[in-house]
Specification:
mainly alpha; flat; nucleotide-binding; DNA_heli_DnaB-like_N_sf; about 65% helix; ATP-binding; about 190 residues; DNA_helicase_DnaB-like_N; DNAb Helicase, Chain A; DnaB-like helicase N-terminal domain-containing protein
């Protein structure tokens, strides 16, 4: 039985990133590499991230060249795999929904792996049960903590908020007035 995954959505997310390069930085903060189950798709996403971090620009030809230089293009079955992905008709307005699906599938895979490990270890006679329960609890809380919902803000939104705060702070008088105009002008009081 295969672990939970959705290769079709993985490909759609990659297509969206390759066709809408401006959102790559925003997506990198919420889409972890491990959310990809398909090794080919995981390799493509890792490569997109590396190229973006190094050059700030990801083009299809740059991606193919990067994969060639790193001897990974054959693993994908050639550049045809990438071309098939980008030829898909995709709607980027569903990107957050797609990422949430990949995240859910990843969490389910991790829970299955943990459960299998728990079952296997439960047959051991020499296990310290309270310590083991604590270890299980830590693993589950770690999975929860690392995959909590993060707000999805674009860099533009964040910069606008920062700019508004700076403008607001310039117009606000932060000091305490002393009653002496010249001193207040010097000290912002």
């Amino acid at each position: 039985m295969k672990l939970p995954h959705n290769s079709k959505i993985e490909k759609i997310v990659i297509a969206i990133l390759l066709l809408n390069k401006k959102i790559i930085l925003d997506v990198m903060y919420i889409l972890h590499t491990n959310y990809f189950y398909n090794l080919k798709n995981k390799l493509l996403y890792k490569s997109i991230k590396k190229i973006y971090l190094k050059y700030k620009k990801v083009e299809i030809l740059t991606l193919i060249d990067y994969l060639n230089v790193n001897n990974k293009i054959d693993f994908l079955g050639g550049k045809k795999y990438i071309i098939k992905i980008i030829n898909k008709i995709v709607d980027s307005s569903y990107l957050k929904h797609y990422i949430n699906i990949l995240k859910k599938k990843y969490i389910l895979r991790e829970l299955i792996k943990m459960s299998n490990s728990i079952i296997k270890d439960s047959y051991k006679d020499d296990i310290e049960i309270l310590t083991y329960l604590y270890t299980i609890e830590k693993k589950i809380f770690s999975l929860l903590k690392n995959n909590q919902e993060k707000n999805f803000y674009s860099i533009k939104e964040i910069l606008n908020k920062i700019e508004n705060k700076i403008i607001l702070n310039k117009t606000c008088n932060k000091g305490i007035l002393s009653g002496f105009k010249q001193l207040d002008a010097i000290t912002n009081g």
